[in-house]
Automatic annotation (TrEMBL):
Organism for this UniProt entry: Paenibacillus haidiansis
Region (Disordered): 125-151
Domain HTH cro/C1-type: 8-62
Pfam families: HTH_3
Organism placement in taxonomy: Bacteria, Bacillati, Bacillota, Bacilli, Bacillales
Record field: compositional bias (Polar residues): 125-137
Superkingdom, taxonomy of origin: Bacteria
Feature: compositional bias, Basic and acidic residues: 138-151
Keywords: DNA-binding
Protein name, as recorded: Helix-turn-helix domain-containing protein
Length: 151
């Protein structure tokens, strides 16, 4: 099995899965899966992740036909974005799931995330305000005590 498509198709058939089965497991249409299996185009990273999970194989094997042994001392690979942020395999999996949602569902999720982040920021600001207020009260008490002692 020399190509990605050949490996996907071979493993799918080995597992006795149909294109419809893969569709149910991954959300990738049967037409797109057929195109991938026939090497009409290469799968996206997100689709590679979904396919690898559905077929219980590594992405390494899908792409190269080889399994790589990972030493426990090796840091898990990450992908770097243009801004320098790291994207872990778990991040990619979450992104792949996000892309399976409808646009309306994606907007809802984005709203939920913004709500959580805003609530977190409100908690931080409240905490900072309380700390500032507490330290100001302590300073006032110390100033008052110093004035009482000098009087």
């Amino acid at each position: 099995m020399g190509t990605i498509g050949e490996r996907i198709k071979g493993k799918r058939k080995e597992l006795k899965l149909t294109l419809k089965d893969i569709n149910k497991l991954t959300g990738i249409s049967t037409g797109n899966m057929s195109d991938l299996e026939n090497d009409k185009y290469a799968p996206s990273v997100a689709n590679l992740l979904l396919i690898s999970k559905a077929l219980s194989v590594s992405i390494d094997w899908l792409v190269t036909g080889k399994e790589y042994q990972i030493s426990e001392h090796v840091v898990q690979p990450t992908t770097q974005t243009a801004s320098g942020d790291s994207i872990s395999p778990a991040d990619l999996e979450l992104l792949a799931k996000f892309h399976q949602l409808t646009e309306k569902e994606q907007v809802k999720i984005e709203g939920m995330i913004m709500g959580i982040l805003m609530a977190r920021e409100d908690i931080r600001q409240t905490s900072v305000t309380q700390k500032s207020s507490s330290s100001m009260n302590t300073e006032r008490r110390e100033e008052g005590a110093a004035k009482s002692e000098s009087a």
